Amino acid sequence: MAFWRSKDKQEETPPADSAEASAGAKKGWLGSLRDGLKKTATLLNTDIRDLFKKEGRLVDDAFLKELFEILVMTDMGPGPAQEIRERIASDYRARVVHMADILDGLKASLKSLMAQPEQPIQLAEGGPTVIMVVGVNGSGKTTSIAKLARRFVADGKQVVLGAGDTFRAAAVEQLRIWAERIGCDIVTGETGSDPASVAFRAVERAIATNADICIVDT
Q1: Which of 83, 114, 145 is the last residue before a domain boundary?
Q2: pTM above 0.70, yes or no
C-alpha cells in the first residue's frame, strides 16, 4: 500500500484521448458499442421488412406480437421491447401502415428510451462521498476518474483516489500520474493484491484526511 500526494496542483484537464486501453484492448467504448449494435441493426433491417410482405399492413394484435418478438430477438430486452410495442400500438393501432411509418416510430421510440435526464452527483451530507467506477478494460474508466477528480478539485473539494485495478499495473501507474497532475491523494497496492483492500484503505484514507470525495477504480 502506498499514499501519494502531489506537490504541484497545476490545473490540467485530462485529454479525451488518454491511453486508457491496455495493449490487448484495441477498441474504445464507441467501437464496442457499434459492434454490439450490429446484431440489432441487422435484425431490424431484415426482420422488420418481413412484417410487410405486402404493401401496407393493419396494425393489430398479431402485428404487435410479431413486432415484439423481433425486438426481443435484437437483444433489446422485454422491458424496452414492450415499451416500444405499446408506443407503436398507441400511434398506429387499427391503421394500415407502411414500413416507413413503423421505422419512423421505432426511431422515435429508441431515441426516447436512450435519452437520460441529467442527474447531478449527490454528495454525502457527512463523511466522504465514495464513487466506485466499474467497466471493462478499455472503456475509459481511468480517464473518466481523472476528469471527475479534476472537476472536484477545481470546485475546491479534497479528493482521494483508490487504484483498485491491481491486476493491471499500467492502470495503477496511469492513475498515479493523473493524481500527481491533478493534485490529489492516491492509495495503491501491490500488483495482483486484493482490490477490495485497496478500496477499503482508500476510504480509510479519505476519512482520516477529512476528504470530500473518494473515487475507486476497479
Answers
A1: 114
A2: no
How many C-alpha atoms does 78 have within 13 Å on its Cβ side?
A: 1
DSSP state of 192: T
What's 151's domain CATH number?
3.40.50.300
The count of structural domains within the chain is: 2
Residue 25 within a domain:
no
Q: Minimum mean pLDDT among 29-38, 135-144, 182-191, 193-202: which range?
A: 29-38
Does residue 137 sit in helix, strand or coil? coil
- Burial string for 69-97 (b: 16+ CB within 10 Å, else e) reads ebbeebebeeebbebbbebbbebbeeeeb
187 neighbors 2 (Cβ within 8 angstroms): yes
